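Key result, reporting period 2: structure in, sequence out.
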């Protein structure tokens, strides 16, 4: 049998856990929408390191294993696309794509975009 003090401690723990779970379930982002749409020219002239970006254009050339030349109406940039990101989608230089990723600004290497998602634009 539980003593009175153990029952109180157990009840307090249960109440605390319930409150914490309810608070976590109600938490959500309350800020406004952020527009990450950009162009290659904007990135190259004023992009910030680790900036989230969305670009639309074409993958025109494979440079290395997972490095590709991406082109939009404003210029070219190298994008790094892991094989898993393609997810079986067939892309050629005439396929318009939307890439979402992170701009990598480097002092020594050329600036690139690390692609997290690739979508074919229809």
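The corresponding designed sequence is given below.
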């Amino acid at each position: 049998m539980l003593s009175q003090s153990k029952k109180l401690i157990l009840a307090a723990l249960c109440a605390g856990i319930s409150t914490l779970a309810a608070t976590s379930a109600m938490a959500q982002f309350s800020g406004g929408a952020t527009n990450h749409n950009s162009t290659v020219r904007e990135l190259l002239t004023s992009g910030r390191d680790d900036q989230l970006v969305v670009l639309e254009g074409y993958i025109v050339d494979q440079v290395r294993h997972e490095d590709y030349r991406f082109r939009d109406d404003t210029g070219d940039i190298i994008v790094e696309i892991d094989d898993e990101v393609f997810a079986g989608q067939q892309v050629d230089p005439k396929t318009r794509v939307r890439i979402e990723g992170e701009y990598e600004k480097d002092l020594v290497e050329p600036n690139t975009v690390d692609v997290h998602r690739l979508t074919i634009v229809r």
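The domain at 40-120 is CATH 2.40.50.200 (OB fold (Dihydrolipoamide Acetyltransferase, E2P)). Residues 40 and 46 are 10 Å apart (CA to CA). This case is discussed further under Risks and Mitigation.
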